[in-house]
């Protein structure tokens, strides 16, 4: 099964709502709702931080926990300390599992699903940079050769970054194909 990712899909994935949707509320109510939403995200980050702090204590790992809100989601980073790479694992597999456990801990406390993002030892930010470069390189290759570029299988996090990188380049488009865990990005040249 092949899925084409459009900029609207990406915007909806990023915000969780249809891009450009009107709230239908007066500006002061919208502002209050935004503050409430921001407060909820800060609360999610605090709960996640407490959960991760207890986990680090159990594992006897040192690390500093930083909480932030970016792009409509709580972001928790664990930095410093020795042995943190063990919490990342090969290709981020342990990090993905830890992120899911942290999301479940937050959900159990708040009663609502969340889109919390977890980074450990700067792995996600470094990986984001590598994948952006990969997407741009694949796009340039597809454009120069006129042949599609099929990338190796990636996680949803990785694919989204590549799609975003390709979306900013004219003359190419990207789509995901295959089934998890073998789902991959394919970059196609477009006709001028």
From TrEMBL:
Lineage: Bacteria, Bacillati, Actinomycetota, Actinomycetes, Pseudonocardiales
Gene3D superfamilies reported for this sequence: 3.30.300.20, R3H-like domain (3.30.1370.50)
Protein name per its UniProtKB record: Protein jag
SMART domains (alphabetical): R3H (SM00393)
Bias kind Basic and acidic residues: ranges: 25-42, 174-183
Classification via InterPro entries: Jag_KH (IPR038008), KH_dom-like_a/b (IPR015946), KhpB (IPR039247), R3H_dom (IPR001374), R3H_dom_sf (IPR036867), R3H_KhpB (IPR034079)
CDD domains: KH-II_Jag (cd02414), R3H_jag (cd02644)
Species of the source: Actinomycetospora chibensis
Location of the R3H domain: 125-191
Pfam families, sorted: R3H
Residues forming coiled coils: none
């Amino acid at each position: 099964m092949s899925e084409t990712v459009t900029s609207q899909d990406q915007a909806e994935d990023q915000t969780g709502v249809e891009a450009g949707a009107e709230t239908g509320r007066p500006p002061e109510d919208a502002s209050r709702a935004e503050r409430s939403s921001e407060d909820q995200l800060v609360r999610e980050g605090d709960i996640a931080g407490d959960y991760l702090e207890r986990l680090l204590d159990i594992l006897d790992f040192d690390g500093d926990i930083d909480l932030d809100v970016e792009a409509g989601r709580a972001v928790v980073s664990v930095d410093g300390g020795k042995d943190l790479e063990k919490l990342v694992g090969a290709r981020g597999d342990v990090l993905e599992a830890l992120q899911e456990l942290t999301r479940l801990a937050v959900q159990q406390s708040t009663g609502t699903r969340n889109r919390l993002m977890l980074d450990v030892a700067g792995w996600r930010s470094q990986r984001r940079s590598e994948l952006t470069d990969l997407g741009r390189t694949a796009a340039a290759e597809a454009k120069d050769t006129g042949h599609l570029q099929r990338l190796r299988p990636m996680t949803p996090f990785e694919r989204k970054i590549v799609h975003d990188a390709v979306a900013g380049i004219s003359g190419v488009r990207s789509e995901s194909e295959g089934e998890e865990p073998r789902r991959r990005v394919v970059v196609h040249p477009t006709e001028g």
